[in-house]
Specification:
The complex is a heterodimer.
Chain A (H helix, E strand, L loop, with lengths): L2 E3 L4 E5 L4 E3 L2 E3 L5 E8 L6 E7 L7 E2 L2 E6 L4 E6 L8 E9 L5 E3 L3 E6 L1
Parallel strand pairs in A: 2-12
Antiparallel strand pairs in A: 1-4, 3-9, 5-6, 5-10, 7-8, 8-9, 10-11, 10-12
Chain B lengths: L3 E4 L2 E4 L5 E7 L5 E8 L3 E10 L2 E4 L6 E3 L9 E3 L8 E8 L9 E2 L3 E5 L1
Parallel strand pairs in B: 2-11
Antiparallel strand pairs in B: 1-3, 3-8, 4-5, 4-9, 5-6, 7-8, 9-10, 9-11
Chain lengths: 114, 114
């Protein structure tokens, strides 16, 4: 069975600093995809970044990068140069390629302070 | 281009009442799904569909029914609402069910069952 674990219920970071949000996963399928979504206080779900299990390089999208450590089964999100607008809930999710299900973790609430 | 439209945005029900949450998408996406979001639980998959006429259960399907008669619509039915179904419900769709296909979410529907 696939499982996503986010152990940090909340994180604080000062503006302009970098922050890492942890995500570990469990799967027996060698082929899978990992996603990060952002949910601001307004409630919408915003896709941030994707990493495939066979991708050779860590994914990057602007200030977002994914620290993918396959052997450790971790897919941590790194946000560089934090901005006040980064304050939100962040969800890690995984889809095994032998299923049609995208399973989410419980999320981490990030607060950026000036 | 509206994307994913959910109605209603808010609903209050009494225990035992039935209702349908509507979800419509105009992206011609094959994959559609319903999630519920509860504090501390993240997003949990209720039901999903990989195409018209095909539906399957997710992590928490009990108390909910779905159907997929067209590509565009994926309604979620609560036959006899219970207080435990108080939650925020999200409909999401993707071009496909595998690989890097990104879920696009609706704005959410907040349901309160008294």
């Amino acid at each position: 069975a696939q499982k996503i674990t986010q152990t940090q219920p909340g994180m604080f970071v000062q503006e302009k600093e970098a922050v890492t949000l942890d995500c570990t996963y469990d799967t027996s399928d060698p082929s899978y995809g990992l996603f990060w979504y952002k949910q601001p206080s307004s409630g919408e779900m915003i896709f941030l970044i994707y990493q495939g299990s066979y991708d050779q390089q860590n994914a990057t999208e602007g200030r977002y990068s994914l620290n993918f450590q396959k052997a450790r089964k971790s897919a941590n999100l790194v946000i560089s140069a934090s901005q006040l607008g980064d304050s939100a809930m962040y969800f890690c999710a995984m889809r095994q390629h032998n299923t049609d299900k995208l399973i989410f973790g419980t999320g981490t609430r990030l607060q950026v302070f000036p | 281009n509206a994307g994913v439209t959910q109605t209603p945005k808010f609903q209050v029900l009494k225990t035992g009442q039935s209702m349908t949450l509507q979800c419509a998408q105009d992206m011609n996406h094959e994959y559609m799904s319903w999630y519920r979001q509860d504090p501390g639980m993240g997003l949990r998959l209720i039901h999903y569909s990989v195409g018209a006429g095909i539906t399957d259960q997710g992590e928490v399907p009990n108390g909910y029914n779905v159907s997929r008669s067209t590509t565009e619509d994926f309604p979620l039915r609560l036959l006899s609402a219970a207080p435990s179904q108080t939650s925020v419900y999200f409909c999401a769709c993707a071009a496909g069910s595998s690989g890097a296909n990104v879920l696009t979410f609706g704005a959410g529907s907040r349901l309160t069952v008294l």
